[in-house]
Amino acid sequence: xxxxxxxxxxxxxxxxxxxxxxxxxxxxxxxxxxxxxxxxxxxxxxxxxxxxxxxxxxxxxxxxxxxxxxxxxxxxxxxxxxxxxxxxxxxxxxxxxxxxxxxxxxxxxxxxxxxxxxxxxxxxxxxxxxxxxxxxxxxxxxxxxxxxxxxxxxxxxxxxxxxxxxxxxxxxxxxxxxxxxxxxxxxxxxxxxxxxxxxxxxxxxxxxxxxxxxxxxxxxxxxxxxxxxxxxxxxxxxxxxxxxxxxxxxxxxxxxxxxxxxxxxxxxxxxxxxxxxxxxxxxxxxxxxxxxxxxxxxxxxxxxxxxxxxxxxxxxxxxxxx
Length: 322
Known about the structure:
By secondary structure, this protein is mostly beta strands. It has helices at 2-38, 40-43, 314-320; strands at 51-52, 59-68, 74-79, 84-88, 94-99, 106-111, 117-121, 126-130, 137-142, 152-154, 160-166, 171-177, 183-190, 193-198, 204-209, 214-220, 226-234, 243-245, 251-255, 260-264, 270-275, 281-287, 293-298, 303-308.
């Protein structure tokens, strides 16, 4: 009896030990799989193949202005209702970040070298500044002669450029805004100015005109003067909206109405055209662990789509080079 009991306890201990080891291994495997799943945000997305990043309808039809902060969070205007800024984590979880002052509605968003968020507030002819530490909002620049500041671009010295369309007249303007908030009208009597961007070497400024379907290139001086205006590319159909450069100097242009993003070389050659699920892409930004994730706002779907590219975005690279 004693030996039977001893054998029983011996096998019981062996079984219990095996069960605990198996349970621990299963737990470790599950944890490992969960970690792999969370880390697949960028690596599992195919090159130039768009997929949903946020839930459809989480933003209004006015979704615009994506920009990425130093932690990889993405921001866009009009989350759930007009006059707000939404924050999206790198894993695609969207929430309300701030509400803008009454009667203000945002469009383009950029971050300056200090990490402040700058927002084109088109109804109030403002550029707003958000202190990211305490979320306080102030007017960084204002000019009543602006039609409705739309999209904005920024240099490494915090000089801003703002497109300024008059949609009803199918005309537009282009503004420069200094780091102290002072404004200078660079050009008037243009077409419907919309997307605006600075090249990686900051020697070229790009501006598109949505209705006229043309993208212009200017020589850009270190003090923000423009000259030598020339046509980069003209499209025969559909419109254009926001655009951004990658670190190699290629320009990614949202084709509003066509439902694509077109990649154009600095010489004006179409290199790639990426299909979206939605038909009204409004703007684009780059982020992700290596800067090669493109985030595109879709107005007809009220959400954001994402795809991977070959080179990191210019703004992402500029932030890492500080």
